[in-house]
């Protein structure tokens, strides 16, 4: 797909600049595997991560954050109440909160937990195709007329249905990242395949979405697409120096930290898909 | 010890190639410290890690994995039941499972937990000399006639006894890694000392063993030796670029990802020890 | 501030050399985010980290360690009893223990937990300015006459009061790190700002303090200042090779591992502040 200059580059730059200028405090209730990369991604982007997950602290702490990030990766019965309490409080206070439904379909326990969280009105849900499809089917039933083997088309339709049902933005990561509010659909084309060989890159881009939405809550759709593109650009630039997944991880974080306007504007590749 | 060309190089290459081709799903119930490196090691090798530890999910999820990895590093009373449930289910379903008895002798609580896990018939147990000696003594009593100060000889004899008693493969990491099924003993000579200055390298090689055994369950002995050698080779190749333990960690993962047949065949160094 | 040659370089070198020679076993009950960097920092410095946090293991294990490190970063109700039990046992056995009161003021629950831990007589408390101020105010009331907007002055006075009240050493990280025993005050001037863009650097330097105090318990004040300076020097040396926070993290650990006497003596920058 040919990239055309459009309004997305300046939007993405505005979001990144706002994160750097405001350093929004982002509460992360995320899985153990991802904590290091999530925190370092947020710091590199200019945000301020706070990894507090304990239910006793939520009433005191969550009111002070700019956004909440919930990720169910290493879900357990004693973390779920915290996730729900924090999400509920964020919703009540009108603060954006973002859900990463890792492996949503891996068990009945996990799928139910994700459905309960979806009912607390996440501002954004980001997953891979199978996660979004599992969640959409469990939320709104099988997508009508879509039983093709084209997973990307399934995912787009599932994302649209889930966005409508949840009232939030839904993003699907893949070769092209899809973002929809149930009506509009855009594709973010940045990124490199080797990012999938690094654990927690999905978790980390969801955290970045939380930071971007934190500085522009009225435009969660645009902020989500911007964050996906910026993270993908950091991956592309890191890839030019990388010799494998571990050096890519390092260069990617460095590039996110150093990303300047010219590079971002020339590389942002977001297009309308519908 | 002079390295002689033998059948091990092609075996190790066959195992690594199978992991890359099949991308086996490996459930990891491992300690907090190691989760990042374990997941990235498995991804670099071509496997597919799943860090699910919650007891509610095991009946749904464990039947879909190719192998299970249990590591007691940051053991606690509320993780142990999950470890046992997953190990039991894996055993019942005939799936390989691998145990890393980190610091087995550090406390009575931990030693008992390890003994309970050993009774669930791990396909492979990998530890360092003191861990295997502690576990062997607690399982089968002091090794007869071995009270020398030569820890490596103690470890070999302890490993043999533990392998016989447990019915599985036992591997002991050290300057030379020892692998035994109670009868055969081989030594894997690859690796560099600085790997011990990186946290969770032991945990990670045990995860790699799980991936190798997953693609060749009938030959767990060979798969274990292959995994130890491949990981050691990645360390050797990484060491040629490293300036310290943190850059070694990075280069090692990159090298594991990029390891090609020629390098592997020329470097694999596994010899019979008995 | 002009650096003058003084006795601190040789002291810092003596502490680092002792850690390398003795490889003290340091029990770490630390937050999930920091575990990887804490363990790798201790290993690079020559110490031996043990990440055991389970209350059942403390009576067996804690008596064997040279020092204990407690960090409340991802505090929860079921970890707090372990922290208190280990701290109490360390105190009873005359072993040094070091507290990192991460985000002490973030919630009532957390502040109370920190106060309970302070009552167990930590050998050293290290935090940033806002953490030390929150803890000092909660321990001894508002610092008299200090209501200026100069946070660094507030912090110094708060540190002094907290040191007097707790009977231990208090360190405050910042542009200049402050160390006080309630009477003496020194500033450690090493380090670079980008270290704050790496998660868990604060946690890691507190772990390093534990290792340094472990090899010189009678001189916890000097050992604390040495550790802060050595960690800062590793950051300075790493910075000369870094292209961003992720490569700084790597080079910093490599430099800590390779730090030699000449570099340390020429760079140590600790001065009396009162």
From TrEMBL, chains A, B, C:
Q: Which reaction does it catalyse?
A: 5-(2-hydroxyethyl)-4-methylthiazole + ATP = 4-methyl-5-(2-phosphooxyethyl)-thiazole + ADP + H(+)
Query: What family does this belong to?
Result: Belongs to the Thz kinase family.
Q: What is its EC number?
A: 2.7.1.50
**Associated pathway:** Cofactor biosynthesis; thiamine diphosphate biosynthesis; 4-methyl-5-(2-phosphoethyl)-thiazole from 5-(2-hydroxyethyl)-4-methylthiazole: step 1/1
Q: What class of enzyme is it?
A: transferase
Q: What is the lineage of its organism?
A: Eukaryota, Viridiplantae, Streptophyta, Embryophyta, Tracheophyta
Q: What is this protein called?
A: Hydroxyethylthiazole kinase
Supply the HAMAP family for this chain.
Thz_kinase (MF_00228)
Q: Which keywords annotate this record?
A: ATP-binding, Kinase, Magnesium, Metal-binding, Nucleotide-binding, Thiamine biosynthesis, Transferase
Q: What is the role of this chain?
A: Thiazole kinase involved in thiamine salvage pathway.
User: One biological-process term from Gene Ontology?
Assistant: thiamine salvage
